[in-house]
Specification:
heterodimer, A: 374 residues, alpha/beta, TIM Barrel, Arc Repressor Mutant, subunit A, 3-stranded antiparallel sheet, 17 strands, 24% strand, B: 603 residues, alpha+beta, 6-stranded mixed sheet, 14 helices
Chain lengths: 374, 603
């Protein structure tokens, strides 16, 4: 079974207006503090002699780290852990903070997949989201990345932005096609509680995207990308053949992963745990030779089965029934017969060729399906 | 301790909520040494948590205390506590029947309130000696003279001897005790004649069975005696005789004039009805004491367990509550929408809320309450008539000749500046103006005939908010009147939902229907299909709203850090679904069944 490594980089130039991830305003001193602590944490886990098939460096904005810091981070990750030979190594980047130099370092240190937060082509929408880059920078970043040798590039897009029109969305899709990305993540905007954007909507300063329009945008992106020879392989993810994101598939198949860095989550040996979100506490704990873990719980078999189903159903291909049986010694249908019958009657799920998967309708009402399996 | 009959004084306290009745009772207990300072918790007589929280007395208590007057003579005083809310007027009448005197406690910063007045009239009917007590005179805003005048004007009681008191500071409490001894007549009754004891209340003890609270009118009762309930004929052997001091204390016997309790292994509350007379089994009295009217429930609603599996627990809980609360009635009913439950009758809305809260709090039950209804008299075209206490049992529109609904005579006391606001409210609630009278120069007493159905909803809340809390209300039943009533059904996804049917005046049906379906649209969550919500009178649809179909409900992002949170979110969502009632293929939240109640609030 594959094992993933996630490294959280908790810095941004400024937090985007829709984002509820853990991140702090960047400064070099804090980055120094962070890297020292991160090195300690990885040193600790190094004793376990873990062999990772995938590595994902996310944030925050990993690309905000200065070149020498980037190199240090990747160096200590390589030093403490084994990566398999063909390991997929992704780094998230903000087009506004990428430089040729940084891209060279990343490439040299083994990063082979680049994930760019693009979100939209229109400046007005980027402003609504509070993004600190423009589309011109995206074009440049991709050009340089290609030159440097990145042949696996993901583009993140967002639809359902307040004020976004269907036309704008179609335009964005058509425009990013020029970049020939190997992978696209197209997320419908989630208004997370406590974010400035959610508050603006709650106060009526801007209007949330109507559901019908959002649905139309979702339908459009699926049709459009399939025509462009992308595979729709997860609710929000599309790829050219052979370019699925293996690291994320680890999550969806409910396999194991180790997360390091502030706020990082891990899932290993029937346990889930997470690190403190506070940078200072994270650093202090590690300097005191403590783990910065703030929450740890053991999963019951029931928990693990639930999670395997609702994560697995996110994949378009569905949940591998045989694999489930081998893992838990019980079939999905034996555990949830009524639920499966009901959802099948409601045309939300279907079983075929050894997989349980969401139907066309189920894909759009996935939460209604998932709730039946907890 | 035994005292002769002429040294016994039985009295109760009549007061409006917050006028200081319970505090005064506590002070009397303290001053007579019935309870030491250390045992003194605030308001000893209010034993239920709910009573303390709401500051009201629901359940009566009867406490015996001893008092040595200024001449050194020792007296036995029995205080019988009374509830202060209009819903419990019936219990007041019960406690009055066990007394010879009453303290009329009036807040000197407020004045007489509507319920106080009603209770005083009731006391006068029982020929009780009334001692006016002007309370809270320690407050800077006290106006004892104005309040005295008001008592003279409105009730016609002589207030020249009225005690100026402060239950809080203890001022005047001595004087109150002296006046009780001097003015309240001692009870009459022959120790040697056949036993006649009035059951004025009871409670249920899980070990001892039903414990009747009694006032012995004739003869005496002691342990080992064979007694008979005159109304039911049931016979018991007395195991125990006692008094409340305020803790239950066993005594030798209770003689004519005394108040206390007995226990006699009475297992069934039906064999020992409040209002009945207890007599000797072998030498019975020839006729029972005058009982009093049984409380008639005026408000009915359906109580259903959220989880159908809790039906038996709900039944057991209602049974237990009714042992302690003779005015609670219930019978099984079932609803297409809610499954098996009970139709329960209450004295009023507060009573209903209290029962509901006690079921949830003391018995840990989750229940759905349907909108309250009154009892309608329906005359059908075939010449027969029937009573309807559940709107869904209303006969077909075509077969109805006429419908009568209960009216009350409502008395509202209010400062004169708010007369307009009160009249407007009464008008809006189909009230018929009867009378207006000035009480002194600042306050006015308004009398209206109002349909009971209009006041059981939220009349009192509106009355309070429209008068900045100054108005007080009392009402009594005043018979049935024919009005133009219609039954309105609510159709959810084209099927009538029985638990939501209401009976309403035709003139208001359109408005209520419209606001009801609007409310329902907000309460019913979106489903995978469109749900029409309609209000209908017979076959005629008077209002319609639509809960739009849910087309998209999917979390776009779910990665390693989201899984636990996502699972918890799904669990919560599932929990919420569980609390809903599945009606046909629509999931309806509990709030929807109560929506009828607050329907006038918005829009």
């Amino acid at each position: 079974m594959s094992l993933g490594l996630y490294i959280h980089v908790p810095f941004c130039l400024r937090k985007c207006r829709y984002c509820d991830f853990v991140s702090y305003a960047y400064n070099r001193n804090d980055a120094e503090l962070y890297l020292n602590a991160l090195n300690r944490e990885m040193e600790y886990y190094a004793q376990r002699r873990l062999d990772f098939n995938t590595v994902f460096i996310g944030g925050g904005t990993p690309s905000i780290l200065e070149t020498d810091h980037l190199e240090r981070l990747l160096y200590s990750a390589r030093q403490h852990f084994q990566w398999t030979e063909d390991a997929e190594v992704t780094m998230e980047a903000n087009p506004g903070t990428l430089t040729e130099e940084k891209l060279y370092v990343m490439r040299r240190m083994g990063v082979n997949r680049l994930s760019l937060g693009v979100q939209a082509c229109q400046q007005s929408l980027l402003n609504t989201l509070g993004r600190l880059h423009d589309y011109q920078q995206v074009i440049q970043a991709v050009q340089i990345a290609r030159v440097v040798g990145f042949n696996n590039i993901n583009i993140d897009l967002i639809f359902g932005i307040p004020g976004q029109t269907l036309h704008q969305w179609q335009k964005t899709l058509a425009t990013v096609m020029n970049l020939q990305p190997e992978h696209l993540s197209c997320y419908s905007l989630q208004l997370e509680e406590g974010t400035p954007l959610a508050e603006a909507v709650a106060k009526g300063k801007i209007n949330a995207c109507p559901e019908e329009l959002e649905l139309q945008m979702y339908n459009d992106v699926i049709d459009f990308l399939i025509k462009k020879d992308y595979q729709h392989y997860e609710i929000s993810n599309f790829s050219k053949p052979g370019f699925n994101c293996e690291h994320n598939i680890t999550y969806w198949k409910n396999n194991q992963y180790l997360g390091v860095g502030p706020a990082a989550h891990s899932h290993m040996q029937m346990q889930r745990w997470s690190n403190t979100t506070e940078l200072r506490q994270y650093a202090n704990n590690l300097m005191d030779n403590d783990l910065p873990v703030v929450e740890r719980h053991h999963l019951t078999r029931q928990d693990a089965m639930s999670e395997t189903v609702f994560m697995g159903l996110r994949l378009i291909k569905g949940l591998d029934l045989d694999q489930f049986y081998r893992r838990f010694g019980q079939g999905v249908y034996d555990i949830w017969p009524q639920q499966i019958n009901k959802l099948t009657d409601q045309d939300l799920i279907e079983m075929s060729e050894g997989y349980l998967r969401l139907t066309y309708k189920g894909l759009r009402l996935a939460n209604q399906v998932f709730v039946e399996f907890v | 301790m035994s005292v002769s009959q002429d040294r016994i004084r039985n009295f109760c306290i009549i007061a409006h909520i917050d006028h200081g009745k319970s505090t005064l009772a506590d002070r009397l207990l303290e001053l007579t040494g019935s309870i030491t300072g250390r045992e003194m918790k605030d308001q000893v007589l209010d034993t239920m948590d709910l009573e303390k929280e709401r500051g009201i007395t629901i359940k009566m208590q009867a406490v015996r205390l001893f008092y040595k007057d200024k001449n050194g003579e020792e007296y036995m005083l029995n205080i019988i506590d009374t509830p202060g809310h209009v819903d419990f007027a019936y219990e007041v009448s019960r406690s009055l029947a066990a007394c010879e005197g009453a303290l009329l406690v009036v807040d000197s910063t407020q004045g007489i309130e509507a319920q106080t007045l009603a209770n005083v009239y009731m006391a006068l009917e029982h020929d009780l000696e009334i001692i006016p007590v002007i309370n809270k005179v320690d407050l800077p805003s006290a106006e004892p003279e104005r309040v005295k005048e008001e008592i003279e004007d409105v009730i016609g009681l002589d207030t020249s001897d009225a005690v100026l008191a402060s239950a809080k500071t203890g001022q005047g409490v001595d004087e109150i005790l002296e006046q009780i001894v001097k003015k309240v007549p001692s009870p009459k009754g022959d120790y040697d004649s056949s036993l006649k004891a009035l059951i004025f209340d009871s409670h249920y003890d899980s070990y001892k069975g039903v414990i009747p609270y009694i006032r012995v009118k004739e003869g005496s009762i002691k342990k080992g005696m064979q007694v008979k309930m005159m109304a039911t004929g049931a016979k018991f052997e007395v195991n125990e005789v006692g008094v409340f001091r305020p803790a239950p204390t066993v005594t030798e016997e209770l003689k004519a004039g005394e108040v206390g309790f007995i226990s006699a292994s009475i297992k069934n509350v039906k064999e020992c009805q409040v209002g009945d007379t207890i007599t000797n089994a072998d030498n019975p009295a020839d006729k029972p004491l005058p009982g009093y009217q049984k409380a008639t429930p005026m408000v009915f609603c359906g109580l259903y367990p959220v989880d159908n599996a809790d039906y038996d627990d709900l039944r057991d809980a209602l049974e237990k509550l009714s042992l302690n609360d003779a005015s609670l009635v219930y019978e099984p009913e079932n609803s297409d929408a809610l499954g098996f439950g009970f139709r329960c009758g209450f004295l009023g809305l507060l009573h209903m809320e209290i029962i509901q809260e006690r079921l949830e709090r003391e018995y840990g039950l989750e229940i759905i309450t349907t909108a309250p209804s009154v009892v309608y008299h329906v005359y059908t075209t075939d010449g027969s008539s029937t009573t309807v206490e559940n709107p869904s049992n209303m006969p077909e529109t075509g077969s109805i000749d006429r419908v009568e609904e209960p009216f009350v005579k409502a008395t509202v006391m209010v400062p004169k500046d708010f007369v307009g606001a009160v009249m407007e409210l009464c008008q809006e609630r189909r009230g018929i103006f009867e009378h207006m009278e000035y009480m002194g120069i600042t306050r006015v007493m308004l009398t209206y005939k109002l349909p009971l159905s209009e006041i059981v909803f939220d009349f009192f809340d509106h009355l309070k908010s429209n008068t900045r809390g100054y108005a007080s209300l009392d009402y009594e039943m005043s018979g049935y009147k024919e009005t133009d009533l219609v039954k309105m059904d609510i159709l959810v996804n084209n099927a009538p939902m029985d638990a939501l049917s209401i009976i309403t005046h035709r003139d208001k049906a359109y408005y209520r229907g419209r606001s009801l379906v609007k409310k329902m649209r907000k309460l019913i969550p979106r489903h995978q299909f469109e749900i029409p919500i309609q209000a209908a009178i017979g076959n005629k649809i008077v209002a319609r709203e639509t809960v739009r179909a849910m087309r998209k409900d999917v979390l776009a992002k779910c990665y390693g850090g989201d899984i636990t949170r996502k699972r918890k979110l799904l669990e919560k969502q599932k929990e919420g679904k569980k609390r809903m009632k599945q009606v046909g293929n629509v999931e309806v939240p509990q709030e929807a069944f109560m929506a009828v109640l607050s329907v006038d609030d918005d829009d």
